[in-house]
């Protein structure tokens, strides 16, 4: 069986060179306007990637603040550390750690900071975790009482081919490296946060691509979209057995057709952003 950590490492190592050439920097700028940051804050950024959120947070917390980014991708961290070496003013208030963000309790480099962070930021990563409630539970311990988390979750109609293939693979009993089935709407993550001792203060929908918030696929694009997802980096460790791939393609086509309206499958390029306080 594939390792989810290995898949994440592979996918994001490959994506590193082009990551900041995408919609991510513009989206992160808008996301960070919602982040309740103050001078002197300690900020934890699980799944920090190339450091987009981390560097913006470092500017906000000032010389007496601290921002700690954690990521499993060495490629992403190499990019973040390279930028850190160029940013003389921000460098002393930044740390980047190579570790599994879902297992922060085993990270010795973080040990002295447990329960001391004012804010935790996680963007464009949470659907990679198998146990969303368990991850929130673990992260909550790193935030001080009254501290906050800001986390985004994909819209239920975001990247529809990914939603469909996850459903198909579940029917076939084949593991898939992301977990979106639980994210059925605006309140799905709110319920998880509240069940884990967090009080949700803000929920806002942010478009990933402001110039194209809604995208339509043709019903006749089912096979094309299946191949696109099945050949993507996220499928690098999927091991098809026998005729599973053809069966998956057939199921994908049927599911795609079932969700089409007037010959179109609609996708929403957006994420829900949640700001929640530890109570």
UniProtKB/TrEMBL annotation:
One of its GO terms (molecular function) is polyprenyldihydroxybenzoate methyltransferase activity. It comes from Neoarthrinium moseri. InterPro entries: Methyltranfer_dom, SAM-dependent_MTases_sf. Residues 38-159 form the Methyltransferase domain. This is Methyltransferase domain-containing protein.
């Amino acid at each position: 069986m594939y390792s989810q950590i290995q898949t994440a490492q592979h996918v994001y190592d490959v994506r590193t060179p082009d990551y900041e050439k995408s919609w991510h920097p513009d989206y992160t700028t808008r996301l960070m306007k919602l982040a309740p940051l103050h001078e002197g804050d300690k900020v934890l950024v699980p799944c920090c990637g190339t450091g987009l959120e981390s560097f913006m947070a470092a500017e906000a917390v000032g010389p007496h603040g601290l921002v700690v980014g954690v990521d499993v991708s060495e490629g992403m961290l190499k990019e973040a550390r390279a930028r850190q070496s160029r940013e003389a003013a921000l460098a002393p208030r930044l740390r980047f750690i190579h570790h599994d963000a879902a297992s922060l309790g085993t990270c010795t480099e973080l040990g002295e900071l447990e329960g001391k962070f004012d804010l935790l930021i996680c963007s464009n990563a949470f659907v990679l975790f198998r146990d969303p409630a368990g991850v929130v539970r673990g992260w909550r311990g790193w935030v001080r009482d009254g501290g906050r988390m800001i986390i985004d979750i994909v819209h239920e109609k975001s990247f529809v081919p990914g939603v469909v293939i996850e459903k198909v693979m579940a029917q076939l009993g084949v593991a898939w490296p992301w977990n979106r089935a639980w994210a059925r709407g605006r309140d799905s993550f709110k319920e998880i946060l509240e069940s884990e001792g967090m009080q949700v203060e803000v929920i806002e929908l942010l478009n990933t691509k402001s110039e194209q918030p809604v995208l339509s696929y043709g019903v006749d694009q089912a096979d094309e979209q299946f191949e696109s997802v099945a050949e993507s980096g996220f499928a690098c460790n999927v091991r098809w057995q026998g005729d599973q791939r053809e069966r998956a393609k057939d199921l994908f086509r049927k599911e795609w057709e079932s969700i089409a309206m007037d010959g179109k499958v609609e996708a929403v390029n957006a994420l829900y952003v949640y700001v929640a306080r530890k109570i």
